[in-house]
Design goal:
This protein has 314 residues and is of the alpha/beta class. The protein is built from eleven helices and nine strands. Helix content is 37%, strand content 14%. The protein binds phosphoric acid mono(formamide)ester.
Length: 314
């Protein structure tokens, strides 16, 4: 099946076959990243603009590196140094970037739906790097890519996502990808942050940490998204940690070969103790590394590349 999408906006809209295609393309690029010469000429002559109107470390740097590894020219613009601080709208900002002959925009924005909006008003591809509490599709892709590297087929595998689900775009993208891949997903946290209506997405909801962690082969921790919460959803961080923080005794409830994941940034000592974040079961930094190959795949495909042609890009 040929790849036909110009934009990457959500994982909700992707089929399992499309997720498989992105993962296969990322695996091919990961091999190239392991060579002495890591750069390929696939996007030579293209200009990619990373428009990050919310803070980022991992996603922005990984998109920068991915574009450079593909030989594209890349320009990054953040909110604080852009004319959005003078009142310029997202529409005007994006249309000016297009007028400057950019070939693709990667957008991070606090408003859910903003990448979809740009995809409708621009003539160039748009890639979502996180929109409000809606989706973070490349994070969901790199997380499931990392899970597949460790577990293989995810069908029937118990994956527990623990923390602030309600305000997490990472959770939503992972839920859409994992349910398509056949994983048995359990969401866990306080009922204020993990409401029962999430079961409509084909997952289990639990407020009991022990049963949620029991025999899970993957546990993904999420931080409390203070920047998107308008009211207190639990009494204090200390109480959250005492009820739902992952520590060594609680990690013993997991499957003996379980992997521990976190999209970052980590609030050490809140959602996870440092000895687990840095321990042998942690794949947190592997997730970061895989973010480059996955974003290379997304950029390559959105520019019209085909999964099977990666082998001939250099
Ligand atoms: N995981 C993630 O989106 O991290 P950043 O906010 O640092 O990009």
């Amino acid at each position: 099946m040929p790849w036909t999408r110009r934009h990457l906006l959500t994982l909700e809209e992707l089929s399992l076959a499309e997720i498989d295609q992105i993962h296969a393309t990322a695996a091919a690029f990961k091999k190239i990243l392991g060579r002495n010469v890591k750069k390929v000429p696939a996007l030579r002559g293209k200009t990619i603009v990373n428009l990050f109107l919310e803070p980022s470390t991992r996603t922005r740097m990984a998109f920068d590196m991915a574009a450079k590894r593909l030989s594209a020219d890349v320009i990054s613009l953040d909110g604080a140094s852009s004319s959005t601080t003078k009142g310029e709208t997202l529409r005007d900002t994006a249309q000016n970037i297009q007028a400057l002959n950019a070939d693709l925009i990667v957008l991070r924005h606090a408003a859910s739906g903003s990448p979809l909006y740009l995809s409708r008003i621009l003539d160039i591809p748009v890639v979502n790097a996180g929109d409000g509490a809606h989706e973070h599709p490349t994070q969901g892709l790199l997380d499931t890519f990392t899970m597949r590297e460790h577990l293989g087929d995810l069908r029937g595998r118990k994956v527990t996502i623990l923390g602030d689900i309600l305000f997490s775009r990472v959770a939503r993208s992972n839920i859409h990808a994992l349910t398509k891949m056949g994983a048995a997903v359990t969401l866990c946290g306080p009922s204020t942050l993990v409401p029962d209506w999430f079961t409509d997405l084909g997952v289990k909801v639990s407020h009991d940490l022990k049963s949620a962690l029991a025999d899970a082969e993957v546990v993904m921790l999420l931080r409390i998204q203070h920047e998107r919460q308008s009211a207190g959803h639990f009494p204090s961080l200390g109480e959250y940690t005492s009820m739902f923080g992952l520590n060594k005794p609680r990690a013993s409830w997991l499957h003996p070969k379980a992997i521990i994941m976190h999209p970052g940034p980590i609030n050490r000592g809140v959602e996870i103790d440092s000895d687990l974040a840095d321990g042998e079961r942690s794949v947190i930094l592997e997730q970061v590394t895989n973010g480059i190959a996955v974003r290379m795949a997304v950029l390559y495909l959105c520019f019209g590349g085909q999964p099977e042609s990666v082998a001939v890009v250099d």
